[in-house]
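anyone seen this seq b4? input:
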Amino acid sequence: MLRNLIRLYSRPSYAVWDRCPSVFQGGQAHLFTLLGNSKAYSSATSERKKFYQDVSISQGDDGLFEINLDRKKLKTPGGKLFTVPNEALAIAVATEWDAQKDTLKFYTMHLTTLCNTVLDNPTFRDKDQIITAALKFLETDTVCYRVEEPSALVELQKNEWDPVLDWIEKRYNVVIGSSCNIMGPQIPEETKDTFRQHLGSYNFWALTGLEFVITQLKSVVLSFGLVNRHLTVEQAVLLSRLEEEYQIRHWGNVEWAHDYDMYELRARTAAGSLFVHLSSESSTVKRKLLQD
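predicted toks r here
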């Protein structure tokens, strides 16, 4: 799963790549393709002329890893030293910076943005607040809201969404259900408590990434399926856009707009999922990457 995520990105060529070759193997197999694809479609204007040539990583006395741009240490927007907890995440972030061309397109650097969010914590949230925000999406989860017509879409939702719902209910021994009512299904408090406990098992870094994925897919169910390797990024994104894709097949679409939305959502979702995994301890990440 992790290796598949990595292949969704496009590989750079810089010294830091060789620092940990066992983590990101694959020769010319691509690292960060999805982020590369999002560059071609993004309409954001957050850009700046590139001001560095070389990207490297180093480990500080505290054991944290830093990103160096021409030997100058990278800092967060809030002015803090940019540090990450393990080498694998440092390599991934450095990759984003090295992949930039003449112009820095910050809106394509999702891993860097997530790290900045953790380090600066601009909204001053703690773990409990993040968990509460994430669980609110369970009450309005994409896969829980069903239509009553047309019959073809009703059948499509049943065939595509029910297996994921069945999986998560069995995986966590909970009841979620679905509803055609505008108020959605009534989620039992026991289910919420189970998911709250599960979310609480993530460290602050990984939890930030998981909440990011949930907000992209508008679904706790699909996000859990993704980070648990039950779904791929492509599958999770398609399932989150099921009704939209159905309408497009029947009524057509503006091709460039559809491609833009799809690539952007895939890029953000892939980055968030990768961030969750890379926010684990370095040794665990390396082992999982090699096994996948």
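The CA atoms of residues 172 and 194 lie 8 Å apart. The first strand starts at residue 47 and ends at 49. kinda curious what u guys think
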